[in-house]
Each structure stands twice: as structure tokens, then as C-alpha cells.
Amino acid sequence: MNAKQKMRHILDIIAGMFPDAHCELNHDNPFELTIAVLLSAQCTDETVNKVTADLFRKYKRPEDYLSVPLEELEQDIRRIGLFRSKASNIQKLSRILLDKYDGEVPETHEGLTELPGVGRKTANVVMSNAFGVPAIAVDTHVERVSKRLAIAKPDDTVLEVEHKLMKLVPKDEWTITHHRLIFFGRYHCKAQNPQCPVCPLLELCKEGKARMKPAAKTKHNKKNTKIRIEG
Would the pTM of this model clear 0.90, i.e. be above it? Predict the structure, then answer.
């Protein structure tokens, strides 16, 4: 099958596995989502949700984050990795939102990526989830799955992975594919101990097939040993 047929096959399989995949960061509006995604860098969504449960009760708007000393905000998010730089970025972006956007999160990719702490991935997540604009955000899960399934090359940059996915996935499926690839990577094709023995996409995965060879060899050796003992 060609690249588009292969992608269609992958999309259909992961759709069957994770039909209800969605953004797992808790939020009620674009501003909260922006803060949550910023905090999620090098941190699990689970930890972020624990922190934002209190954070979003205390801080509702950009001006709230600017009304406290930086040290206080740092303490509020200290369970998050890189909490000092993230606290600083939250206050800086809050100032920009108030000065330039009347306290609202900009609805353009350019506007989002100029905010401190907001890179391309964060902007894509906000654009797709908050504003309904099709986008594929490439996080560690999406990158890992794309490379394991040979959608992208092992040495491709995150941007190259994103462009390849955008080319192969129909535009109206970009956002849901982003979520399904994350779920597939988070709950099935994990970085450590991926579920290769029960993976419906094993045939497309060079790494998975290599992982399964030692298991098959061990099984074969055990079978031969058993035959010799019984014989």
C-alpha cells in the first residue's frame, strides 16, 4: 500500500481503539487551556490537572496572575517541573494579553506563538481545542508513534513530523488524529513496555517486530526443551 493508504489504515485502527480520545487537560476557557498546556511541558497531564484544580480557583483572569508576587505563583505551581520559568512566563504572557489583546487569548497562530512559554505545539493545541481550527500538535507521544510506524523518519524534527502528518491526514481529521495518536502513545505504544504482543499495527512497526523476535525465540526454545524432556 502507498503512504496515504497506510495512513488511512492507521487512522481507522486507532479510531477503533480510541474513538473518544480528547484533550485530557482540564480547562473551561481558552485562557485556562493556554496556561495548562504551558504547564504540561515535560510534565504529565495528571500532575498538571492536580495543580490547576487549585490554581484555576485562585486565578481566573490575566490580571489575577499579575496581582501576586512571582514567588507566590511559583509556590502555587511548585509541583510542576521547571516551575520557576513557567511562573515567570505566565506573568509575562498575562501582561501581553492585557496590554495587547484586552485580556483575551489571541485566535491566531502568530499571536499565540509570540506569548512567552507558548511554542508551536502549545499554539496548535489551543487553536484546535479552544477555537476549533484544525491542527496537529506534535508532542512526545505523537512523535514517538509517528516514527515507530514509519510515518516519519527516525531523525525527523518535530516540525517535519507535523508536516508529514498534515500531508497524509485529511484536514478535517487533524484534531481528532492528534488526540488519538496521543492516546495510542500514552496507553498502548508507550515509551517503555509498549503493548507489542497485542498491537494491531505490529506489522507496520519495525521496532515492534524487532522487540517481538526475542520473545518468539524464547518461546521456541522453551518448546524444544519441553519436547526433549518429554522425549
Answer: no
